[in-house]
Amino acid sequence: MLSRTADSLYWLSRYVERAENTARIIDAASRLAALPAGYGSATNEWESALAATGSKENFAAHYDEATPETVVDFLAFSPQNPSSIKNCLENARTNARSVRTALTTELWETINSAWLELKNYSPRDHNLSRLADFLRFVKQTSLSFDGSAYRTMLRSDSYCFTRIGVYMERADATARILDVKYHVLLPPGAQVGGSLDYFQWSSILRSVSALTAYHWVYRENLKPWLVADLLILNQQMPRSIASCYENLTRYLDMLARHYGRQGPSQRHARSTFTRLQNANLDDVFQSGLHEFLSEFIADNNRLGSQINEQYLI
């Protein structure tokens, strides 16, 4: 496969996954913003949404204040934000069009239909029902994309590159969401384990479709360390960091077998996955959750650079 084809397939998947993750972050922020004032008036959920997407500095260059309207506009529609949902879906469609012959009909129709439907939504649509419709549309697009890839693509190198893009983006998003909650979201002086803390953790789990899974696995009330265990180390949870790296290792190894050689990306992914398998939650919290997640995000970025150098340029 030509490197530019591999690059387009990889980034097509990353952009679709990024759009979904951003929609989930906006959804979580809007749920928290709707909490009664009695649960804590000092919450900064809209700023935390910017932090979770790594876009605070870019936002500050274009807006004076983080309000629901400005944050939704920036994260969902702004042309000044390269990772806005609108830009992500447009970039996904551009990449899909450039590799149209490598996609199945179902995959192309999913992306092209989403691009066409995107025109029905405007940054002026700030009412709650319209915003909820938009976020559902974005999440449904990603689900349809994943389902179409799983059901219709040959298990060739094309499929591997689409899956690698998904899990690279998903691992980064899960780590950032968890890190922001643990260090940014709970206001100073708020009680850890209190009602505000409970609703915030609940909202974070909803944002990654993990609330039901949490109760199935742990069968008890929300506890921060158990949420961290679910989203970092539990391989049964599809959005956990460990699950993402299990899949990254699998698909990078499939590429190695397909091309007849391994490289630094396979070794790095396997090393990271082994560390996650051998980690336990006590060690993670003892060394510092923020430090652990920051180190992981840097490791994940290194893997992205290695994949780029090995296959995409």
Describe the structure.
The chain is mostly helical and 313 residues long. Helix content is 74%, strand content 0%. The chain contains 15 helices and no strands. It has helices at 3-33, 45-52, 56-60, 68-77, 85-98, 105-118, 128-152, 157-185, 195-207, 211-218, 224-232, 241-259, 264-278, 281-287, 289-312. Helix 1 packs parallel to helix 8 (157-185). The longest helix has 31 residues, at 3-33. The radius of gyration is 19 Å and the shape is globular. The N and C termini lie close together (12 Å). Mean pLDDT is 88; it is low at 186-193.
Throw out a few tags for this protein.
313 residues, mainly alpha, 74% helix, 0% strand, globular
Write the layout of secondary structure elements.
Elements: H1 3-33, H2 45-52, H3 56-60, H4 68-77, H5 85-98, H6 105-118, H7 128-152, H8 157-185, H9 195-207, H10 211-218, H11 224-232, H12 241-259, H13 264-278, H14 281-287, H15 289-312
Helix pairs in contact: 1-2, 1-4, 1-5, 1-7, 1-8, 1-9, 2-8, 5-6, 6-7, 8-11, 8-12, 8-15, 12-13, 13-15
The secondary-structure class comes to mainly alpha
Strand count, sense and closure of the main sheet? none
Task: Return residue spans where pLDDT drops below 50 for at least 5 consecutive residues.
Answer: 186-193
Radius of gyration, taken over Cα atoms and rounded to an integer in Å:
19 Å
